[in-house]
Design goal:
The protein has about 180 residues and is mostly helical. The chain has a domain of about 35 residues. It contains 3 helices and no strands. It starts with a helix and ends with a helix.
Length: about 180
């Protein structure tokens, strides 16, 4: 029994050593895999962090450029609007000047036309009066010539063709006599 016991103990010890060896081997293998995984995870994490930093830097650069362009564009818009407002004001002032000039020109033209119409009316009234006067003069001369004068005494009246201008001149001569 002692031998059996010893054999049992040796058997147990041998199995125990083998199991312990397998456990240590497994533990070592798992530790190694964990370390490899940790290294891979660290490497991946560092690569990811590096890529994120690069992308963040690119984004920051693009954002900075965008903000600068936005500010430049806004400034450009302000300048454009300001120039437009100045130009609009100049054009409005010019419009007002043109409007005043047109009103003055129209007013001057109306005065000119009114004056010309008044002169025409006066001329027509004078002509009408002259025509009436001439008609009276002709009637008077006609009756005078029929009654007292013959064609031989006033040959120049009969031989000339009397135009309105001649008649007006003759009328003036008769008035002075």
């Amino acid at each position: 029994m002692a031998v059996r016991r010893k054999k049992k103990e040796e058997s147990i010890s041998s199995v125990s050593t083998e199991v312990k060896s397998k456990i240590d081997e497994l533990k070592s293998k798992l530790d190694k895999e964990r370390q490899n995984f940790a290294k891979a995870l660290t490497k991946s994490s560092k690569e990811c962090e590096s890529l994120l930093k690069e992308e963040a830097a690119k984004f920051e650069q693009i954002h900075h450029k965008f903000m600068k362009e936005k500010a430049d564009n806004l400034e450009g818009l302000k300048v454009t609007v300001s120039k437009f407002e100045e130009n609009k004001e100049r054009l409005y002032m010019r419009y007002e000047q043109l409007r005043k000039k047109e009103k003055t020109m129209i007013s001057d033209h109306e005065r000119f036309c009114t004056k010309k119409l008044a002169q025409l009316e006066e001329s027509l009234k004078k002509k009408k009066r002259a025509d009436k006067t001439f008609s009276i003069l002709r009637k008077t001369l006609g009756s005078f010539l029929e009654n007292e004068a013959s064609d031989e005494e006033f040959p120049h009246l009969m031989s000339e063709r009397l135009t309105p201008l001649h008649l007006t001149l003759k009328k003036k001569r008769l008035k002075t006599l």
